[in-house]
Amino acid sequence: xxxxPAPKIVGPRDGKAGRLGSIGVRFMIGMEETATGxxxxxxxxxxxxxxxxxxxxxxxxxxxxxxxxGRMGALLGDDVVYAEAGDLVHKPRNQWHTFWSAGDEPCRIxxxxxxxxxxxxxxxxVDAGAAGRPDPEWLAALAARYGLEHDVASIxxxxxxxxxxxx
Length: 167
Hints:
There is one protein chain. By secondary structure, the chain is of the alpha+beta class. It is 19% helix and 38% strand. It is built from 3 helices and 11 strands. The chain has helices spanning 119-130, 136-145, 154-162, and strands at residues 17-20, 23-29, 40-46, 55-58, 62-69, 71-76, 79-84, 88-91, 97-101, 107-114, 148-151. The strands form 3 sheets. A 6-stranded antiparallel beta sheet has the order 1-2-3-10-5-8, with helices on one face. The chain has a 3-stranded antiparallel beta sheet with strand order 7-6-9, with no helix packed on it. Strand 6 (71-76) and strand 7 (79-84) form a beta hairpin. The chain is globular.
């Protein structure tokens, strides 16, 4: 007998929400809620002209950013791209990348993560941030556990290049 996840409707205010430094996160679908764990879905609201993260790369998953509102910029390898509401940006695993709110209005994206599981990284980060600024050694161990590499030195360079703020 096969088991299937229960039907679920996620309303506009449903799901755990928190802060990831400069941007927000709202958990919508975790890998446990999909039949195969094939993806997870989070929402990232971003204030105007805010960098979401330093340059980073994932070794285990691809990310797909669907822009709901506003304008998103992304650095994908050496390519700079801009996406408007209705556009989808693919950020493949093993590619250095970052993204940001590229306009004077807030930006909101749906982040599809495939396969699922990386949403747990965000969840741990939200919980740690609620208790204060996380220890850099703890952050490095968390990133390593999820197959994530960061280039923290990229933050001031990205902020200067694209006119951004980073919390």
